[in-house]
Design a protein that fits this description.
By secondary structure, the protein is mainly beta. 12% of the residues lie in helices and 58% in strands. 16% of the residues are buried.
Length: 173
Amino acid sequence: MVTVFTVTMFFSCKDNFKEVQNIGLLSNKPITEADNINTKYTDSGRLKSHLISPKMLDFSNRKFSFVEFPQGIDFTIYDEKGNKNNVLSDFAMIYNDTDLIDLQGNVVVTTHSNDTLFTEQLFYDQKREWMFTNKPVKFRRNNEIINGTGFDSNRSFTNARVLEMSGIIYIDE
């Protein structure tokens, strides 16, 4: 009888470690929440970027993992010469598997040379260091403001272009 009981107990227990690991995958909640983010990234003693955000939600517990900034970001990137380029948006998502950043709501990108892009949504491909949108844009460069729909550019704005221009305003300074 003891043998039958022991064998029954042994075979009725199952390894549910995978089920325990997947508990977070089944919920719609982030694995981590952080408030008042103020992160500086350095490489070889040089400041590369500075991120400020009121809230961060980390959904890396999902199959298609991402990090969400539901209350927006203020992100400053420093180039090799120490020049500052700034990105502001009301909302941001970083997709970990694709290295794509989705910026939404009052997106403003300002370069160290005061080139400024205004749009409602902008994507940034971190691998290719390329930004793009198919939404309406206003792009200020030098003494002109270019309005249109769609924009693409490399990270440094040296290849920046408005895709479907609807007008150019020249500014006298």
